[in-house]
Amino acid sequence: MKIRNQGENEKNELNMTSMIDIVFLLLVFFVMTFKVVEMEGDFSVRMPLGDSQGAADPTDLGLKLRLRADSQGRLASMALNDSDLGTDYDALRARIVSQIGSATPTEEDEGPELEIDTDYNLRYENVIKAITAVSGYKDGNEVVKLIEKIKFAKPRR
């Protein structure tokens, strides 16, 4: 008995050598072009928990910053410990410097803590500007740190 169609029983193999070469070339390319970048705006920020059943005592907080928004989400006013500052971030920084001084905290003393209380519709850029104003400033070639511990209250609707 003769078997026909012997060609169908042959095994078709795929040459994987070129695919492996391409994978290694891509791997080498991405490893060589990867650049480690210093983190920008690395703030020590603690967000509030979902439930505030075990809320901390408000007397433990050093400073409280209230940011109010208008109907379009722009900054309407700022208040630091119930004293109105308008919308001037420089006035906010000056008030922080006058209250805590410009001395940088030591390792034992963690420094003052700030709680930021915002309206729900306030634009994010205003919160970042406020954090920048209270976290420190540049004096010549030296960076003066003011507040490093920042907490957020639940946004108000």
Automatic annotation (TrEMBL):
Topology term for the membrane: Single-pass membrane protein; Single-pass type II membrane protein
Organism taxonomic ancestry: Bacteria, Pseudomonadati, Planctomycetota, Planctomycetia, Pirellulales
Source organism, top-level taxon: Bacteria
One Pfam short name: ExbD
UniProt family annotation: Belongs to the ExbD/TolR family.
Subcellular location(s) per record: Cell membrane
Keywords: Cell membrane, Membrane, Protein transport, Transmembrane, Transmembrane helix, Transport
Transmembrane regions listed in the UniProt entry: 20-37
Protein name: Biopolymer transport protein ExbD/TolR
